[in-house]
Design a protein that fits this description.
Length: about 400
């Protein structure tokens, strides 16, 4: 832990981590809030699912695009514009009575305008710390983001069910503006400029590492979404057991991220981390008892943040600085598609053979990810004795004093 203490003593690191977590916090609430509100207003889970799909499609499409825009127009301009537009769209969802097609349009706009905070902050990190600290910083970031997925759903469920779904969405608007403003005011956004990429949009995907991390992110988050669906189906949405099990799943990820954060990353590290998740997911098939399921998912969780941290580190080390934001945008898009597909397949499996089918789906995603990590091991850079800083661009990168 001394390494993390030294990291947080670095000027600006604690502040930028806190600010980006605040800016991203609404991400842990939007899906549930939209689902509950649209079902309440249109009295149809089908309508709610359609609007939620529009939000997810918008986020998936926008990720690489808005991330790349930051190199053209600057991080603050893009983040300020997207924060305002997505806030307006969510406010419209909450306050404007509208037929379903218009509601779907509001959801699509909210998704398309999702601020690319993750891409921005992970592009900034290499300019804030020593090269030797970068992998630990990615691990700390991956661990702390579990706070979003633990606290966010609990808070929005309480507000939406106990007060009002309108209040829940308005609260999200408030968090989006407040957190986004805090992040926008971070001095680092003014000190670091992302140079404009000279390559065409999408060319970053020609790099094997970016493709691998996008595919592996798709499979990892698909597995997590399927497992979450299986937990809810096992005990019911309102059951105490469901909340407890999903919380310890996230806690396992938090602990794993901190424990693995300072370990050197070899090309085989990704496969080892996937193997940990596969063991935990495999154990869920033994029993759906609450205690057994919780223990199994703690084991699975130990590998989740380490996989994400390694994905961020090897992506950073494999692309030019001008392309890092777009690369992270593609990774985020892969994760969003994985979440949607994992949930959908798990839903069909639950309908067909029960909650165990969702766990089988999760295990299938993870085993496939393990196979990819093993077969494509040569595509991962070896970061042992090497830092994860991006490849320098041929033109100088301006850093303001």
């Amino acid at each position: 832990m001394s390494g993390y203490r030294d990291l947080l003593r670095t000027p600006g690191v604690g502040r930028i981590i806190a600010a980006q977590l605040a800016a991203r916090f609404p991400g842990g609430m939007v899906a549930l809030a939209v689902l509950l509100h649209v079902e309440h207003t249109h009295h149809s889970y089908g309508a709610a699912g359609t609007v939620l799909a529009a939000v997810s499609i918008g986020q998936a499409v926008a990720g690489p695009v808005t991330s790349r825009w930051m190199g053209r127009w600057g991080m603050r301009r893009v983040l300020a514009l997207t924060t305002l537009v997505t806030s307006a769209a969510i406010a419209a969802l909450a306050l404007v009575p509208a037929p379903l097609p218009v509601t779907i349009l509001f959801g699509l706009i909210a998704g398309l305008a999702s601020p690319p905070v993750q891409s921005a902050v992970r592009t900034i990190y290499p300019k804030m710390v020593n090269a030797s600290q970068l992998t630990a910083l990615y691990s700390l970031d991956a661990s702390l983001q579990e706070i979003i997925w633990i606290a966010g759903p609990v808070l929005i469920t309480f507000v939406s069910t106990q007060i009002s779904t309108v209040v829940g969405l308005v609260m999200i608007v408030g968090f989006t503006i407040a957190g986004g403003t805090w992040f926008l005011l971070s001095p680092e956004l003014g000190r670091v400029r992302i140079p404009r990429s000279r390559r065409s949009f999408g060319r970053v995907l020609r790099g094997p590492t970016v493709v691998l991390t996008t595919v592996l992110g798709f499979l990892l988050i698909g597995a997590c979404a399927a497992a979450e669906a299986g937990v809810v189906a096992s005990f019911g949405e309102g059951a105490v057991e469901s909340g407890f099990i999903l919380a310890v799943f996230a806690v396992g990820s938090f602990v794993g991220g901190l424990a693995f954060g300072n370990l050197p990353m070899s090309p085989w590290s990704m496969a080892r981390r996937y193997a940990i998740i596969a063991v935990g997911m495999g154990l869920t098939l033994v029993s759906l008892d609450a205690w057994w399921l919780g223990g199994s998912l703690v084991i699975a969780g130990l590998g989740i943040a380490p996989v994400l941290a390694m994905s961020f580190a090897i992506t950073s080390a494999s692309v030019k600085f001008s392309e890092t934001a777009e690369a992270y945008g593609w990774i985020n898009t892969g994760q969003l598609i994985g979440a949607a597909l994992g949930s959908a397949i798990a839903g069909f499996m639950i309908d067909g053979i029960g909650p165990r089918g969702a766990m089988m789906t999760a295990l299938g995603f993870i085993v496939l990810g393990l196979v990819v990590a093993i077969v494509c091991v040569r595509g991962f850079p070896d970061l042992r004795g090497r830092d994860a800083s991006p490849i320098p661009d041929t033109e100088p990168v301006q850093t303001l004093p």
